[in-house]
Structures are given as structure tokens and as C-alpha cells.
């Protein structure tokens, strides 16, 4: 005789989908998001805010260092290693005036910058996660310090330091653009973006497009960082003129090297962010500094819900 059939145990699981109820308004439904979905959205918003703040601070720092370097490069070497527009102009002027030694100088400086950008790209493809701490950080730090040592030993030395600095800034600008998503060394570009945003907002032809908060804040961050860096460079040249001969670029080399290592901290193990062998996680309410009642209100059913047409 066959054993009696036993019905399987059925577990009732509350689905994670939002519940829908009828509203008083005809032909409308109100969607009540589940607490788990609201928590996920809250974490996603907080994560996005943290990422933007992180990028904005990095943009200010990179722009600050660029402003610091630009003034020093001009008064010390009469060329720029952070951008090639001025070098191209001076190369054209030297060519017209038949100063072929200067033409060769600017051509090699530009070529060195391009080689630095290519090195960054190659390292990114070849070494991937280990590119910053294992390859690029030592090169940038060594080249900036080496340029200072050469001019300290011989203040007439210009060509080799120029090549070292241009190569290093080819890497630096590439890293800055990669981690911030912006050209942190082009102040004119930031001003152009701000102008376009303002015109699009005021122009009815453009549709009065709202100004993107993140875009305009990032552009202002680049401009502010650059101006502060240039002002710091002028101030430092007045109070400590000996650093023009030796010290400034070496200090920048240490800062950039440390910054690259910090950007790659997870690849290095992030031991300072670990507790009991695990990475620390930032609590949303603590990070955003919300009162408990505010967080409770957000997580409660009193949160405004969206209406969806039937």
C-alpha cells in the first residue's frame, strides 16, 4: 500500500515588491515602498553624495598643486609642464625668430609630456590596480625630486629638469582626470562650462535647463583650487625664496606620491581602515549627521509616495 501523500511545508515569504493601494483620487494608485527598498535608496543616495564630495576635494587638491607649480615653473624655467598651450606658442615664436635651440627645447618638452600620458595609459592597461602604488607613484615622486636636485646643484640646468617635470605632469594630469572625471588642470575649460550652464539656464531657446549642481560645483572647485595654489606659490616665493632653488618641487613630489598611494589604499590593504580584519563601513545616519527622529521619519510610512497613473 502506497504511503499517504504529505503536503510539503510552505513558507510564506513577504515579497520585497512595493505594495499598491487605491488613492482617493480617481484613476490613481499610490505606491508604498517597502522599508528595505527605502533603505537601499537611502544608502545609494548617501554613497553618491560621498563619491561626489570625494571627487570635489580631489579636484581642489589637484588644481591647487597645479596652480602652485605653474607660477613656480614660469619664474624658474620660463615654460610650463602642466599644460602644453604656452609651450606650443613659444615654440612657434622661436621658429619664426630662427631660435632653433629653443625650438628643439619646446619640441622635446611637448614630446616628454606626451610620453608621460602614454606611460600612464600603458601602466593602466598592463598593471591595472597596481599601477598607482607600484609604478606611477615612485616615478612621479622621483622625477620631481630629481629635477630639484639638478637645479640645486647647477642653477643653469634647465633642459633635463624640464623633461622630467613634463613627463611627470603627463602622468599627474592623467591620474587627476581619471579619478575626478574632469580636466583639473584647465581653468579655462571650467570657466567655459560655467558660462554654458548659466546661458542655458537663462535662455528660453535652450529650454531654461536647470544648472546641474554637481557640474557647477566641480567647475568652481577647479577654479578655486588653482587660484589658491597660485596665491600660495607667490606667498611662498616671498617668505622662503630659497625654496625656488630647491624644495618646492621636491615637496610636491612627496605630496603626489602620498596622494597616489592613498588613492590606491584598498590595493595596499587599507590597514588603517580595518577593524578585526574587515573594512569599516560608514553608517549612513552617522555620516550624514541626521538626527534619529529624521532618520526614523524617512524610514517610516509617512515618507511622501509617488503617484502612478492607472
TrEMBL record:
Membrane among keywords: yes
Keywords: Membrane, Transmembrane, Transmembrane helix
Transmembrane segments: 58-80, 100-119, 131-147, 167-194, 215-239, 245-263
InterPro entries reported in the protein's UniProt record: DUF1275
UniProt cross-references to PANTHER family, sorted A to Z: SLR0142 PROTEIN (PTHR37314), UPF0700 TRANSMEMBRANE PROTEIN YOAK (PTHR37314:SF4)
Descriptive protein name: DUF1275 domain-containing protein
Protein's organism: Cyclotella cryptica
Amino acid at each position: 500500500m502506497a504511503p499517504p501523500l504529505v503536503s510539503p511545508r510552505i513558507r510564506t515569504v513577504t515579497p520585497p515588491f512595493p505594495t499598491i493601494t487605491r488613492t482617493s483620487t480617481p484613476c490613481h494608485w499610490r505606491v508604498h515602498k517597502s522599508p528595505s527598498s527605502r533603505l537601499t535608496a537611502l544608502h545609494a543616495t548617501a554613497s553618491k553624495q560621498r563619491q561626489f564630495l570625494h571627487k570635489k576635494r580631489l579636484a581642489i587638491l589637484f588644481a591647487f598643486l597645479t596652480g602652485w607649480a605653474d607660477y613656480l615653473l614660469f619664474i624658474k624655467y620660463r615654460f610650463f609642464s602642466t599644460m602644453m598651450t604656452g609651450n606650443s606658442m613659444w615654440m612657434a615664436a622661436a621658429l619664426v625668430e630662427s631660435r632653433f635651440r629653443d625650438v628643439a627645447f619646446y619640441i622635446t618638452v611637448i614630446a616628454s609630456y606626451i610620453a608621460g600620458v602614454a606611460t600612464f595609459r600603458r601602466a593602466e592597461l598592463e598593471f591595472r590596480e597596481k599601477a598607482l602604488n607600484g609604478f606611477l607613484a615612485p616615478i612621479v615622486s622621483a622625477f620631481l625630486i630629481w629635477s630639484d636636485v639638478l637645479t640645486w646643484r647647477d642653477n643653469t640646468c634647465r633642459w633635463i629638469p624640464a623633461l622630467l617635470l613634463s613627463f611627470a605632469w603627463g602622468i599627474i594630469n592623467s591620474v587627476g582626470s581619471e579619478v575626478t572625471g574632469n580636466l583639473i588642470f584647465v581653468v579655462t575649460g571650467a570657466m567655459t562650462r560655467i558660462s554654458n550652464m548659466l546661458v542655458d539656464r537663462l535662455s528660453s531657446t535652450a529650454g531654461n535647463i536647470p544648472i546641474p549642481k554637481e557640474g557647477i560645483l566641480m567647475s568652481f572647485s577647479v577654479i578655486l583650487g588653482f587660484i589658491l595654489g597660485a596665491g600660495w606659490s607667490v606667498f611662498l616665493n616671498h617668505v622662503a625664496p630659497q625654496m625656488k632653488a630647491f624644495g618646492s618641487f621636491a615637496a610636491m613630489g612627496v605630496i603626489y606620491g602620498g596622494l597616489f598611494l592613498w588613492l590606491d589604499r584598498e590595493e595596499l590593504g587599507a590597514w588603517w581602515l580595518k577593524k578585526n580584519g574587515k573594512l569599516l563601513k560608514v553608517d549612513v545616519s552617522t555620516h550624514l549627521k541626521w538626527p534619529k527622529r529624521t532618520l526614523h521619519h524617512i524610514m517610516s510610512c509617512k515618507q511622501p509616495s509617488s503617484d502612478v497613473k492607472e
